[in-house]
TrEMBL record:
Residues 113-209, 311-405 form the Fibronectin type-III domain. It holds the Pfam family fn3. The keyword Oxidoreductase does not apply. This is Titin. Keywords: Immunoglobulin domain, Repeat. Residues 428-445 have a biased composition (Basic and acidic residues).
Length: 484
C-alpha cells in the first residue's frame, strides 16, 4: 500500500512496509522520452523548482535513509510550499526491490491558523475599552495572544495598535482623536500565524459617555473587617463610572493620603486601600468616595484592630489595716477591641525589684490584698483580653501596713490622771478610733477626756475626777472609783 504522509513544520514523515532505503525528490513534470530517474545518496532534498515550472529538468532522487529496519523515517529541512514525492524500496541479501512511491505532497505546517475571536464588546470615550471571547478553534496550536487593529472611518488602512501580543481578552485602545469614528478588529495568533479578523459590528465615536459612579465593596471586607495588630488592612472595592471617578478614602470623616504605612492603589475598576502593620489606632469607620462629572457614590467599611487593652485608670488603696488593704481601679479607656476577661494585680516592697502576683484571675475591679504589719507596699494592676495583657498601672506612693504599739497594762493611783498613749504608723495616714472593752462604740471627747492624734501617735488622757477621800461609813473599802 502507498505510504502515509504527515507534515511537521519543515519535516515529512512516512510509513511503509520496510525502509532500508528511503529516497525523496521534488516533483517536476517529466519530459516525454526523458531518462529514468537516477538515485543519488544525499542527506537532504535537492533544491529544485516547483511543479508549476514545467520546463524544469527532471529532479534526481535524494536518499533520506539507507539502513535500519524501521518503517518510519523523518525527513528534515523541507521548504514550506514545495511539493515532494517519497519512494521506498526494500532490500535483502539478494538485492533491492522495486520502489513504492507516495502521492505528491506539499510541505506545510501540521497546524492551521486559529479561528477568529468572539464578537467584541465596547464602550467609548477618548480611548476605547474592548473585550472579546476566545476563538472556538485554535487551529491545533495554543493561542499565543491577540492583535488589535484600528481604521479611521473613510480610510482603507488598518493600523496595528498593540506592539506586543495581548495575552488577555481585553484591551484599552489609546490615542483616539475626539470626534473621530473608528472601526476596531481583533485577530488571534498562534505559532502558524494570525486568524481572520473579527470586527466590531459598529463604529466607535471618540467622545465621553457619562456614567454615574458605582462602588461595590469586595466580599472579603464587606461591611466590616477585623484584623490583629501588626497585620495588613486591605480594603478592596470595584468602582465603575465614565469618566473614571476621582477616588477619595476617609477615616472617621478625615481624608487619608499615602504615607509610610498607607498605600492607595487605583487600577480601575479595582480600587484598594492598604495599611501595613496595623496598630490599634487604625480602627474606625473607613469610606471610599467616587466622584465624577455625572455623580457621586460611596461605601463604608468598619475596621476593628484587635490589640491588648490600654492601661487601667485611677488605681486607689483604701481601708489599710495591719494585715490587709483594699485595692480598686477603673477600666482602661480602650479595651483593645474585645472584652476584658480578667485583671492581674501585683505588689512589691520598695526594697524589692520583682513583683509578686496577688491575683491573676480577678474579674472585679476591687480586691483585698494581704499585708504584713509595718511593711510598705506598691501595687500595680493590668487588664487582659484574648489578645494578651495590657500595660500596668502603678500606685505612685507606697502603702504602709498599720503598726500599733500600746502597753497592755497601765497602773495609776486613785485620783490621778490616766495617760493612755499608742504609737500608730501607717500610709496613708490612718484614722484612729478608741474603744473600751469589747464594745465597738467609739469613745468620744468629754469634760474629762481628750483625744490627741499626730503623725505617728494617738493619746487618750483621762483627767482626774477631783473626788475627796471617801469615809469608811460611806465606803468601807476606802477605795476611789475611776470612771471611763
Amino acid at each position: 500500500m502507498p505510504p502515509t504522509l504527515w507534515c511537521y513544520g519543515t519535516a515529512l514523515a512516512m510509513v511503509g512496509s520496510r525502509l532500508p532505503t528511503t529516497s525523496l525528490r521534488r516533483r517536476s513534470p517529466q519530459p516525454r522520452g526523458g531518462p529514468e530517474p537516477q538515485e543519488t545518496h544525499c542527506t537532504r532534498p535537492l533544491n529544485t523548482e516547483s511543479r508549476t515550472l514545467w520546463r524544469a529538468p527532471w529532479e534526481p532522487w535524494s536518499v533520506v535513509s539507507s539502513s535500519g529496519t524501521s518503517t518510519k523515517a523523518k525527513v528534515s529541512r523541507l521548504e514550506k510550499g514545495r511539493e515532494y514525492i517519497v519512494r521506498v524500496r526494500a532490500e535483502n541479501k539478494i538485492g533491492i526491490g522495486a520502489g513504492l512511491e507516495s502521492p505528491p505532497t506539499v510541505a506545510k505546517h501540521m497546524f492551521n491558523p486559529p479561528g477568529p475571536p468572539g464578537l467584541p464588546e465596547d464602550w467609548s470615550k477618548s480611548y476605547a475599552d474592548i473585550c472579546w471571547t476566545k476563538p472556538t478553534r485554535d487551529g491545533g496550536s495554543p493561542i499565543l495572544g491577540y492583535v488589535v487593529e484600528a481604521q479611521k472611518t473613510g480610510t482603507a488602512q488598518w493600523d496595528r495598535i498593540n506592539k506586543d501580543l495581548i495575552k488577555m481578552c481585553a484591551y484599552r485602545v489609546p490615542g483616539l482623536i475626539e470626534g473621530m469614528e473608528y472601526k476596531i478588529r481583533i485577530r488571534a495568533t498562534n505559532k502558524v500565524g494570525d486568524s481572520e479578523p473579527r470586527e466590531l459590528p459598529q463604529t466607535i465615536l471618540a467622545k465621553d459617555i457619562l456614567v454615574p459612579p458605582e462602588v461595590v465593596v469586595d466580599v472579603a471586607c464587606r461591611d466590616s473587617l477585623t484584623v490583629r495588630a501588626g497585620q495588613i488592612i486591605s480594603l478592596i472595592t470595584r468602582v465603575k463610572g465614565r469618566p473614571d471617578p476621582e477616588i477619595t478614602w476617609t477615616k472617621d470623616a478625615r481624608a487619608l493620603s499615602r504615607d509610610k504605612r498607607t498605600e492607595i492603589n487605583n487600577n480601575y475598576p479595582l480600587c484598594e486601600l492598604v495599611i501595613n502593620e496595623a496598630v490599634r489606632s487604625d480602627y474606625g469607620k473607613y469610606a471610599i468616595i467616587a466622584k465624577n462629572s455625572s455623580g457621586q457614590a460611596q461605601a463604608t467599611i468598619i475596621v476593628n484592630v484587635l490589640d491588648t487593652p490600654g492601661a487601667c485608670q485611677n488605681i486607689k488603696v483604701a481601708y489599710v489595716t495591719k494585715n490587709s488593704c483594699m485595692v480598686s481601679w477603673e477600666n482602661p479607656e480602650d479595651n483593645g477591641g474585645t472584652e476584658i476577661t480578667q485583671y492581674i494585680i501585683e505588689s512589691r516592697q520598695p526594697s524589692q525589684r520583682g513583683w509578686t502576683v496577688v491575683s491573676n484571675d480577678c474579674t472585679k475591679r476591687l480586691i483585698k490584698a494581704p499585708l504584713t504589719e509595718g511593711c510598705e507596699y506598691f501595687f500595680r494592676v493590668s487588664a487582659e483580653n484574648k489578645i494578651g495583657a495590657g500595660p500596668p498601672t502603678e500606685t505612685k506612693t507606697p502603702v504602709l501596713a498599720i503598726k500599733i504599739k500600746l502597753d497592755g497594762t497601765l497602773v495609776v493611783k486613785a485620783g490621778d490622771s490616766i495617760p493612755i498613749e499608742a504609737t500608730v504608723k501607717g500610709k496613708p495616714q490612718p484614722d484612729v478610733k478608741w474603744t473600751k472593752d469589747e464594745s465597738t462604740e467609739e469613745i468620744r471627747k468629754g469634760p474629762r477626756l481628750q483625744i490627741e492624734t499626730g503623725a505617728d501617735f494617738s493619746k487618750l488622757p483621762i483627767q482626774s475626777s477631783g473626788c475627796a477621800p471617801v469615809r469608811q461609813p460611806v465606803c468601807p473599802d476606802h477605795q476611789r472609783c475611776v470612771k471611763d
